[in-house]
Specification:
This is CCDC113/CCDC96 coiled-coil domain-containing protein. The structure is a single chain. The chain is built from six helices and four strands. It is mainly alpha-helical. The chain folds into three domains: 133 residues; 126 residues; 49 residues. The chain has a two-stranded antiparallel sheet. It has a two-stranded antiparallel sheet with strand order 3-4. The protein is rod-shaped. The termini are far apart.
């Protein structure tokens, strides 16, 4: 079964005897743990084991009491009722425990995802510092106008170089190991050939010694003398063989140590290759995000340029409005001065109270004139009537 997150591409392999899904594993309260050997193992939480033991104990207690009930009276006892109530409450406790255990692997995976995201950001920052440190004299190394495509090509070339060097190191290690094995086999063959030739030479020498000594000392004495010389030579050869064996053992130990170191380095190279593959995947996703960001940046730059053009046009309109406003203020000041001068020349025009009083006086004057005219006409009529009356009186 394999747990994976879409963002960090973290694969955790869980070896179980029965194939189950993620939800089944979470429902059964399984905890995914990663060991030192890189393999993930499924562990059952302690709370689940305790609950299972309690259930087993409860079940066994119920069975015992059922047997006692069968042997005793048929009426249920208080202990049996309490056990039945505990058995009825157990599913709720188990459901709560299972819900808590189901969320634990999810929290663990989320924490691991956050750690890997943080590690990804740190690696990207280290990569940026490394590129800036490699090219400190370039004008675009520390500015916003960095040629991203060129940096990407350089980074990909460096990754290819590292991968080629790792592959070459692995092939060289295998070649050297094979050469060492071949040389060891050749040395063993040479040693066996030397031993065979040495035995043949020792036999020939013994025969020559016996033949030489038998001429002067006799056959038996020559054989005894040859045996003593052979034993002395054999002792020397044994001492020499022990020294050679010790040297060969030391060389073999060194060879085994080198073999172990080579195997360790091979494992480290494989781990680095896996990390490199993960980094490449992350770099590809980062490059996609970077391309989207570049497109967004270009769109924003075009939008900013359009807004700058509109701002320039608005600035021109504002300048024109300022000129018009200045001329309007000047005209206002001139009109205000003329108004003040006219007010000084026409004092009544500037005083509403006097104007109102003047209008009232004029209206009253007109009324009085009308009354005067009426009185004059009345006086004339009365005068005419009085003259007529006087004439009538005089005529009488």
């Amino acid at each position: 079964m394999r747990h994976s997150t879409a963002e960090d591409k973290v694969d955790v392999t869980v070896e179980t005897p029965v194939e189950t899904t993620d939800r089944q594993a979470a429902g059964e309260g399984l905890v995914v743990a990663t060991g030192d050997d890189g393999m993930a193992r499924t562990e059952m939480p302690t709370s689940t084991i305790t609950t299972t033991l309690l259930e087993d104990e409860g079940k066994s207690g119920v069975n015992v009491e059922e047997e006692e009930v069968e042997e005793g009276p048929l009426q249920p006892t208080a202990d049996q009722l309490e056990v039945e109530q505990t058995t009825a409450d157990q599913p709720e406790v188990e459901q709560t425990t299972l819900e808590a255990e189901q969320m634990k692997p999810l929290h663990d995976l989320q924490a691991e995802r956050d750690k890997l995201s943080l590690r990804n950001s740190q690696l990207l920052l280290q990569l940026l510092h490394h590129i800036c440190r490699k090219a400190p004299n370039e004008p675009h190394a520390l500015h916003g106008t960095t040629d991203i495509s060129e940096l990407e090509q350089r980074y990909l070339k460096l990754l290819d170089t590292v991968e080629n060097l790792a592959r070459q190191h692995c092939s060289d290690s295998e070649l050297h190991l094979q050469q060492a094995i071949d040389l060891h086999q050749q040395s063993q063959e040479k040693v066996e050939q030397v031993e065979r030739e040495w035995k043949a030479w020792a036999e020939a020498r013994c025969e020559a010694t016996v033949a030489t000594l038998s001429r002067t000392l006799g056959r038996r004495t020559a054989l005894a003398q040859a045996e003593r010389l052979g034993e002395a030579m054999q002792k020397g050869e044994d001492d020499l063989g022990i020294n050679l064996t010790l040297d060969e053992g030391i060389n073999l130990i060194d060879f085994e140590q080198l073999k172990i170191e080579n195997h360790t380095y091979s494992k480290k190279i494989e781990e680095r290759d896996e990390e490199l593959l993960k980094l490449r995947k992350k770099i590809s996703s980062t490059l996609q995000v970077l391309s989207h960001v570049k497109e967004k940046l270009q769109f924003v730059q075009v939008e900013n340029q359009a807004k700058r053009d509109r701002l320039v046009q608005a600035q021109v309109v504002v300048d024109q409005g300022r000129d018009i406003l200045t001329r309007t203020k000047q005209a206002r000041d001139a009109l205000r001065a003329d108004n003040l001068r006219l007010r000084r020349r026409c004092s009544l025009l500037g005083n509403a109270t006097l104007l109102r009083d003047f209008e009232e006086k004029v209206d009253a004057y007109k009324v009085l004139e009308e009354q005067l005219e009426m009185l004059k006409r009345r006086h004339a009529e009365l005068s005419v009537r009085g003259a007529g009356v006087k004439r009538i009186r005089q005529m009488r």
